[in-house]
Amino acid sequence: MLSSAFLRTSVRGRIVAGLTGAALMFGAAAATAEPLTLRFSTIVPNRGTSGADLNWIADQIKERSNGDLDVEIFWGGALAAPADTARAVGDGLADMGTVVTSYTPGLLDLYEVGNLLIGPSNPWVAQQAAYELATENEDVVKQFTDRGLHYVTNLNAGLIQLICREPINSVEDLKGLKIRTGGPYTEVLSRMGATTIAIPQSEVYQALDTGVVDCNQIYHIAVDSFRQYEVAKHVITLEFGMVMAYAIFMNNDLWNEMTDEQRAVITEVGKDFNQRVVREHIAAVEEVKTRLAADQGVIYADPPAEMLEQIKTEGADLAKTWIASVEEKGLPAQTVFEDYQAMIAKYQADFDANGYPWK
Fold this sequence. Notes:
This protein has helices at 11-26, 28-31, 48-64, 85-91, 123-136, 138-146, 184-191, 204-210, 220-225, 252-257, 260-295, 305-327, 333-354, and strands at 36-41, 69-74, 96-100, 149-154, 161-164, 178-180, 195-197, 215-218, 234-236, 246-251, 299-301. It is an alpha/beta fold. Helix 3 links the parallel strand 1 and strand 2. Helix 3 (48-64) packs antiparallel against helix 11 (260-295). The termini are far apart. Residues 1-12 and 15-31 have low confidence and may be disordered.
């Protein structure tokens, strides 16, 4: 981790520098108006639902802090590459950032339970369970802290799909197919005969266009924001599996040095975002699918039944492998797995009884 004496990693240092500079120029009274600007690193582009979500968070932090806090977003991996974001935030190069754990497997092992291909298939249930796990499970929180991270809120890209240059009509079509993947789908599709390839989402457009990959693991919203519909027209609606180990983190040293009021603002924004993100996501998915089918000729098709069944079987087996491998590191994977499953069951029961809270 970078030295706390390094100015950019120290909130106190940055505040003192800002106040001193303002005091010298305008007097002590003017110095108190200096905002703390948080550098936010993200892989996503500044468009589509994902961009709107992050802009909402930035705007809310500034508004609710009455301008005491500001957020400068570095879009499209401009500050840190996807595989480097967690470490960049933990080391203080970035103050905040969106961390996709499938790019850094093993860094936040316990939180990665949210990526396992074991369900649920309800984004609201998954969102609430992931947020509760990341804020209340002591073992998960400790691993965040050990990596220099403070969890702010969970992101939700929705259910996993495939976008392909050609349709998939049977399990046999997977044999030798070049698929860009991440997380558990890498192992699962490899077991099913596909050739899996690791490429950042921001580079997939060109890979699809040139045939470096035949398909890409993606989400409905990202098909739109990354414009992959321009080079691939077939979306295989798997509608199974979510990368829920996908969150906004803050540098933990920075968090500890902030005022109680500043921490309260960020906590409240994180909680409110957790409640709104799925509602906005569901509405956006319907809009995107309708628009891309009508305007861009995108063809949405269900996967072959045997393909989905095999994915679920392989996913369940892979979950057992994950537990064993993380336990070998001396981490309580089985306990965290059971805790997460209990949270899923709790929120699923709530959904079954009451539906979405906004309806």
